[in-house]
Amino acid sequence: MINYIIRRIFYMIPTLIIISMISFTVIQLPPGDYLTTKIAQLQAQDELINVDLIEALREEYGLDKPIYVQYGKWVWNILHGDFGYSWEWQRPVEEVIGERILLTAIISFSATFMIYLVAIPVGIFSATHKYSVGDYLVTFVAFVGLALPNFLLALLLLFLGYALFDVSLSGLFSAEFANAPWSAAKVGDLLKHLWIPVIVVGTTSTAGRIRVMRGNLLDELNKPYVMAARAKGLSEVKLLLKYPVRTALNPLISGLSVLLPQMISGATITAVVLGLPTTGPMLLGALRSQDVYLAGAFILLLSTLTVISTLLSDILLAWSDPRIQYE
Amino acid sequence: MSDRSILLEIRNLDVNFFLDEGTVEAVQDVSLDVFQNYTLGIVGESGCGKSVLSQAIMRIVPPPGKITGGEMVYHGGNAHSIDLVKLDEKGKAIRSIRGNEIGLILQEPMAALSPLYTVGDQIQDVLRQHSSMSKPEAKAYIVELLDQVGIPKPDIHVDQYPFELSGGLRQRVVIAMAIACKPKLLIADEPTTALDVTIQAQILRLFQELKETLDISIIFISHDLAVISEIADEIVVMYNGRIVEEGPARKVFSEPLHPYTIGLLKSVPKLGEGSRERLTTIEGTVPDPFMKSEGCAFYPRCSIREEQCTLECPALAEVERGRKAACLPIQSSSR
Fold first, then answer.
1. Most Cβ neighbours (<10 Å): which of A56, B92, B144, B160?
2. Which residues contact B63 (CB under 8 A, 6 or more apart)?
């Protein structure tokens, strides 16, 4: 098992190198660079452009060099803890993204947690009460959840919050905490706002996973080993949880690796609608203005998260299903 | 057979499956007795209701199946008699009988074990449910138990997963699980069907040994009359949910009465008779479970059918001393 984990961690390195190369290239693919975009903007506003200054900047950041040189410099700096400089924000990248990555991670992990916390018991209920009123109700709600786009749900909740309770549910913080340093009160304020994005981001996946859990468990419930367990005299709850539920969980565990990146990227539109200070909107902006180092850092961090979550779910699955061989 | 006190009395048991397409009468009007230290063989082809009968005794008939009538009186050791039909399917009373007083061995040894838990873990369930054994005590006992059912190196196999064992070993594990709490009655549903012939013989021998050492009664279910006649004291032949013939094992095997039993025996290949004849089959197919007829269910396939057979369904009646058959022509000729 230890060997397996070490080997898997080792495999992550080439994956990440390839991802970083591709993302760096793709960000640079559109003609021009950040400075040309900037010049175009300034020209549009009829401002004077200092050509010498532009050229000096271009040289300083190596934008006149071939792309592989730029890439090499970028990676070299990252290995030394320097993610580069965001032109758009006029600050080092790590300063700009630090908090956003944290908030994104908080929302994604909370949503993932909520998805499983809701989907597993509801799926179990739905399967063990097949074709009952409760099952039909769950199925109906789940299908509505699947069909409803995230952003629509976000708008709906915002509207309801405003119309019924006269509160603004957008954002992750109240106005007084938005730019305040971290404190216990700020964390409390975050928790107060967190549930809306978590519900919005998690609903579709929760609905999907309820269906998956129900379907898997229904398959397992008719297996002879369940009857065998019943013939031992075990109580219904005990035998359900020990035998069929455990087997039915496996696809959900392997689904974890897909879920986390989905949560992270899927939250973008929601974040725009809800005005959340997360990575999604900022990444979108960075890509549009070719703010290379900012976009590159985001993509690299998010893909690292994805690769790690894949590894985690594989380890979990290997731990939970003895049929999986490590060799 | 010194001890002929009765252990389980089944009277007029009906089990129906209520499906969208209609009702399937899987077990109809079945009555039988199981005595102590006694082996009852139940024979019939697939779909005759023999597995459902075994599930009914354990009260684990899967939905949409339901026991719709009859009684099953279980006479436990300490003079208490319970009608199993009246018990709540999920209640404590029936759960204290399952696995403890009555053990069940399911058909497929691979499917009857969960792939996610070790052999020892799955046997431990039943022990910890019905006794106050601690985990280490249970484990030591399970190793002993595995040894008793003829598993070599039981201390190693106890920590292995079912998929790491061969088919024969898995069947022995399932048997060990069923006898772990020393039940009074062991129901074995096709315990040798999934195994090859040499292993079959070993498992049959194991059942004989268990019966002698554990002083246990066995209901042995199979489609193979030859296998059953080797192990059973008495044989019950089922067709389409009903008992069509009942009698002492040797007699039923050597001089079958009911045309269905005769057909079953003829369809088994025999060694060393030098005959190059084709194997006889029973004409026709198993009746459609949704079709209900007034008369005998075997009528369309029967070799001795008469006009009267279409009119009424024959009841099981004694035609010779200790032998019963549900067949009108036979009953009328013996009178």
1. B160
2. none
pLDDT of residue B274: 58
Q: What is the mean pLDDT of chain A?
A: 83
Helix residue ranges, H only, chain A: 2-28, 34-44, 51-60, 67-79, 93-128, 133-147, 150-165, 184-221, 224-231, 236-242, 244-274, 279-288, 292-320
**By a Cβ cutoff of 8 Å, what residues of chain A touch chain B?**
222-225, 227-236, 242-243, 246-247, 320-323
Q: How far apart are CA A268 and CA A302, in angstroms?
A: 13
Q: What is the pLDDT of residue A287?
A: 81
Neighbours of A287 (CB within 10 A): 17
Residue B46 backbone phi and psi in degrees, to 5: -60, 140
Say what the pTM is: 0.79
What is the token pair recorded at B319? 């035609």
Pairwise CB contact (< 8 Å): A323 & B161: yes
- Report residue A88 as tokens: 């758009």
Q: Are the Cβ atoms of B114 and A322 closer than 8 angstroms?
A: no
DSSP single-letter state for residue A324: -
Distance CA A242, CA B111 (A): 16
Sorted by sequence, the CB contacts under 8 Å of residue A145 that are 6+ apart come out as A203, A204, A206, A207
Q: Which residue in B57, B105, B125, B174 has the most chain A C-beta atoms within 10 A of its own C-beta, making it the best mutation to test that interface? A: B125
Interface test with chain B among A230, A238, A321, by most B beta carbons within 10 Å: A230
Q: If you measure CA to CA, which chain B residue comes closest to A239?
A: B125
> What one-character-per-residue DSSP string does A141-167 give?
HHHHHHHS-HHHHHHHHHHHHHHHH--
- Please give the Cα distance from B334 to B318 (Å, whole number): 9
Min distance A10 CA to chain B CA atoms (Å): 28
- A251 is written with which tokens? 């696809």
Stretch among A68-77, A88-97, B74-83 having the lowest mean pLDDT = B74-83
- What pLDDT is stored for residue B2 in this prediction? 44
pLDDT value for A327: 59
How many whole angstroms separate alpha carbon B62 and alpha carbon B84? Answer: 16
Convert the pLDDT of each residue in B95-151 to its tens digit: 888 888 899 998 887 888 988 899 999 999 888 888 888 888 889 999 988 988 888
CA distance A157 to A84: 38
Give kind and range of the element (H or E) at residue B15.
strand B6-19
Encoded tokens for B92: 């404590």
As a whole number of angstroms, the distance between CA A8 and CA B260 comes to: 62
- Give tens-digit pLDDT for A199-247: 888 888 899 899 999 999 999 998 889 999 998 888 888 889 999 999 8
8 Å CB contact of A233 and B60: no
Tokens coding B313: 């369904």
B112: chain A residues, CB-CB within 8 Å: 224-225, 227-228
Has residue B326 got a pLDDT over 50?
yes
| Helix (H) / strand (E) containing B204 | helix B197-214
Backbone angles phi, psi at A40, to 5 degrees: -60, -40
Amino acid B270: pLDDT: 67
Question: What span, in angstroms and rounded, lies between the C-alpha atoms of A128 and A239?
Answer: 12
